[in-house]
Design brief:
Blueprint (H helix, E strand, L loop, with lengths): L3 E9 L2 E10 L5 E4 L5 E6 L4 H10 L1 H10 L11 E2 L2 E2 L1 E6 L4 E5 L2 E6 L5 H27 L11 E5 L6 E4 L4 E5 L7 H13 L8 H10 L3 H13 L2
Parallel strand pairs: 2-4, 7-9, 10-12
Antiparallel strand pairs: 1-2, 3-4, 5-6, 8-9, 11-12
Amino acid sequence: MPATKTLCPLELGSRTVLCEFTQKRVKNVNIRVKPDGSVAVSYPAGLSLSFARRCAVQKAGFILRSLEKLPRPQGAGGRLFYHGSALEIRAFFSETPTFSLENGVLRLGHPFPEDPEKTRAAAEKALCGIARRELTGHCLNAYPLFGGAFPFPELRFKKMTSRWGSCSPQKNSVTLNLKLISVPPECAEYVVCHEFAHFLQPNHSPAFYAELARRIPDWKERKKLLNQSAAGL
């Protein structure tokens, strides 16, 4: 008889766990938490899926303790950071992707919460959305500091490897690195003002730094903090 497999989300205390139930030739209901964080439940052919689900719920303590012993899903790229601190990811099952971020904890709902790579990808996508919103806010806050000396630029966002931002006065656009979400907000504010100052002075002359200092007098301290934070990412 071919094995019958069914994916089912289980409510185990305050956590939703996606389990794979397999009906096959076994004598008992067996539960195994795999190294990748997936949960496999096998049960005899003569039993119903609902009975196997109840057995798994009764073993909630064992499943949750086993999952807690596994490394938290961070993916191959290491930890994720938000505002200069390592971000804690708490994934749960949800057919529709959803997230919330509070006190350094990203609560992430997606269809495969026990898959580390998919959780990592979902977390990065959520952070990119948060970064766009926050960086747009920094730009809106910084623009009045320049007294309307240039039209509000078109904002572009992308991940960059060697620059925190770039400015194109000819195209009236500013491009900001989405990774700025990883460093303290005052560092992101510095980068925004740095790029805006290039609308007034296109190079890094003393006149440029004079314009920058008029908007954020402590720009040197912010730049130093940015370099320190970037080194720890």
